[in-house]
Write a structure and sequence with these properties.
- Helix 1 crosses helix 2 and helix 1 packs across helix 4.
- The chain contains 8 helices and 7 strands; from the N terminus they run αααααααββαβββββ.
- The chain has a 5-stranded antiparallel beta sheet. Strands 1-2 form a two-stranded antiparallel sheet.
- The chain is globular.
- It has 218 residues and is an alpha+beta fold.
Length: 218
């Protein structure tokens, strides 16, 4: 019953982690290319896609990146098994105050959908620029970013670089971008294939390494 299911899920996750490492190693472009391409595919997915729709898109991605189908298929187990048996956001929802925080006026429905009812998608490219995020931050100090559901600290930025360097990197990629020295590691879970969530179960984004270092696209 439940115990057997748990053991099967653990075995799937272990196999998928190994397969994902193989996938990264076999990419012609290296791990950067795999992670960027995989994230692009995940972000482009339509909520209305059927299993066959996803299978077709994934097979095409596999061919384009010259990944052996058997390795790629096994790696996909990680996506499914990582979310089984866990209630996203702990069954909660974003705080109402996020709609007025810093006077940004974000959409509560968008925040709730992305953070608590989704594991792969994100708000559209450049959304943080349309609401003027960086213009509302104190460029002379470090900003602390908190979980929108349970309130724990997740990132402190900028650290190890200037405010302008942080801003430029975020704008070039389309989403707020953080580096290892800026993460509150005890509060953030990074899954084997790069998906990130807080320890409260809030979906955060993906780890998309660039320049030989981890980069957290949030």
């Amino acid at each position: 019953g439940r115990q057997a299911f748990g053991k099967k899920k653990d075995a799937q996750q272990a196999a998928a982690k190994e397969a994902w490492e193989q996938l990264n190693a076999q990419s012609m472009d290296g791990s950067d290319g795999v992670n960027e391409s995989m994230a692009s595919l995940s972000l482009a997915a339509s909520p209305g896609w059927t299993g066959e729709d996803y299978k077709g898109k994934l097979n095409l991605w596999c061919q384009q990146n010259k990944i052996p189908p058997v390795v790629f298929t096994t790696a996909l187990l990680c996506m499914a098994s990582a979310v089984l048996g866990k209630e996203q956001c702990g069954g909660g929802a974003p705080m109402e105050s996020i709609t007025s925080y810093l006077g940004i006026g974000v959409s509560y429905d968008t925040a709730d959908r992305i953070c608590c009812h989704n594991h792969h998608l994100a708000e559209h490219w450049g959304y943080f620029q349309t609401v003027g995020l960086f213009q509302r931050l104190d460029s002379s100090n470090i900003t602390v970013f908190y979980d929108s559901v349970c309130g724990i600290p997740l990132f402190l930025a900028p650290k190890g670089r200037t405010f302008d360097e942080w801003k430029r990197e975020s704008e070039s990629h389309g989403w707020p971008s953080f580096r290892p020295e800026e993460i509150v590691s005890e509060n953030v879970i990074i899954h084997p294939y790069g998906r990130m969530e807080s320890k409260c179960g809030t979906h955060l984004g993906h780890n998309l390494p660039s320049g030989g270092r981890d980069r957290y696209c949030i």
